[in-house]
Each structure stands twice: as C-alpha cells, then as structure tokens.
Specification:
The chain has five helices and ten strands, in the order E-H-E-E-H-H-E-E-E-E-H-H-E-E-E. With 270 residues, the chain is of the alpha+beta class. Helix 4 packs antiparallel against helix 5.
C-alpha cells in the first residue's frame, strides 16, 4: 500500500472527510487561542491484515475504494448502496464523537500539563491522540475490524479498543452469538478459555494479571468486545480491567471449529 502524508484541522475534517478504512491522527499546535493550541487531524487508510498503518491524504480513488471494501467488489452495485450508507454513517458519527472527546477532554488536559511544565521549567512532550482501525477479516458477507484510540503523553497512559463485525449485505452489525451453534453458553465458554490461557501465561511468565484475574475475566467480559480473524475469534478486555497497564489491552483467541466459533463461509463464485 502506498502511503502519503497530510493533515487538516478539526472543522475541515468534520465537514469534508469520511472515516472508511482510515485512521485519525490528532495533535495540538500553539495558536494563542483558548488553550493556546489548535487541534488537527491527519487522515489515512487502514492497513490490511499484516500491513503497517501510515499517514496519507484522502483522494477520490480512496473514497471509491472504501465503498468497495464493504461491497467486496467494484463497480458499486445499486442494491448494496443502503448497507454502504449505514456503514458510512456509523463511522462518521464515531469520528465526530471521538473528535469532540479530544476537544472537550484531552485538549484541556494537554494544556494543563503544558502550563505546569512551563511553570516548573520542566521538559514537555506534545500530547496527541490517534484513532486507528484495522480490518481483520473480509470473508464472504462478513467484514470484521477494530478501532483503537491511543492517547500519548497524557497521564494515565490509555488505549481504548472497540470492534465491529458487519454483515455486508444488510449493513447491520452481527452479534457474538451469530458465530456459535444455537444454545451455546458463549460467555461461559470464552471466560473458561481465557482463564486457562491466563493461567498458562502466568505459569510461564509471559504475562502478568491481577491476583483475582479469574473473577475479573468473568466480570469484565463484554459480548461486544470481539472480532474475527483468519486464525479464529478474538475477544479482548480493556486496559487495567484484568491486568496491569504494561499488558495493555488483553486479547484472547479461539480457533474455528464445529462447536464454534464457526468459520464464516466464503462468497460463492459463479
């Protein structure tokens, strides 16, 4: 994937850009305004599985390609325009919400840390927030991806992840239970698998968890925190919920199988 650089300010970004397959890079610059800074965003395409994400400017070809990701083919089919609009609307609203959060919450905090550093003649690193997302699986009618909002140089260190798995034909989100046989106790099964993995990691010293991680894995479980990948179904826990900050977002996986999770069918070719 070729990568190009570019940035736009917040208001222009909201008016002129969409969020298909892209990330938002947010930072401040000194302007002498209310907080002495201006929020800006750099926009780029999301990476395909295994690719690195880089900054790039939007083009007409990018926008046409974004729609093709959801449709799974080009040129666009009229029967699939409604699903594409649903998908597009969902992420545009998400982008607006995240940018409002940056302006309302992160910008004042960043200004406070800057002023404190200036008063103490202490070193200060420019704070920024990055909203990135990654497509993890495109198979048949299924599109799965996750987004991560990362706050840098702003205590406490925080990365927030959310994931969505879409039915590309209807434009609706699919629940976790859609990938297991009927009457499967999905939460019980995934929590049990997470406990077994966590115990093995603790024994081998490859990861650290809180002492009561067994109860926390059940308590902090969310049926919305999952995505699909080539190697199976992944579910994850927020930072600080089951393990120290050094572990980041804790991710578990389960391979596809007849008892679930079920591997999405490939699109029929004819």
């Amino acid at each position: 994937m070729k990568v190009k650089g570019g940035s736009v300010n917040f208001s222009h970004f909201l008016r002129r850009n969409r969020l298909h397959g892209r990330f938002i890079h947010w930072s401040e610059k000194k302007t002498g305004g209310r907080y002495g800074k201006r929020a800006s965003a750099a926009v780029g395409n999301a990476a395909a599985p295994g690719e690195n994400v880089g900054e790039r400017r939007r083009t007409g070809a990018d926008r046409r390609g974004d729609a093709a990701v959801l449709r799974g083919k080009e040129p666009p089919c009229a029967a699939l325009r409604l699903p594409v609009r649903r998908f597009d609307r969902y992420y545009r609203q998400y982008a607006r919400a995240y940018l409002k959060y940056c302006e309302a919450e992160l910008l004042p905090r960043a200004a406070e840390t800057m002023h404190t550093a200036l008063e103490r003649s202490a070193p200060w690193s420019c704070a920024r927030a990055v909203l990135a997302y990654r497509v993890t699986l495109v198979r048949g009618d299924i599109l799965s991806l996750y987004t991560e909002g990362r706050e840098e140089h702003l205590p406490p260190r925080l990365t927030l992840r959310r994931a969505e798995t879409w039915d590309r034909r209807t434009g609706f989100l699919l629940p976790l239970t859609a990938f297991f046989p009927p009457k499967t106790a999905v939460k019980k099964r995934l929590v049990r698998a997470a406990r077994e993995t966590a115990r093995e990691q603790m024994e081998t010293g490859t990861a650290a968890y809180y002492p009561d991680y067994g109860a926390l894995l059940r308590r902090a479980f969310s049926s919305r925190s999952f995505y699909l990948a080539d190697d199976g179904l992944h579910w994850f826990y927020p930072m600080y919920s089951v393990a120290p900050a050094a572990e980041g977002i804790v991710d578990f996986s389960l391979p596809y199988g007849e008892a679930g999770p079920l591997l999405p069918a490939e699109e029929e070719k004819g």
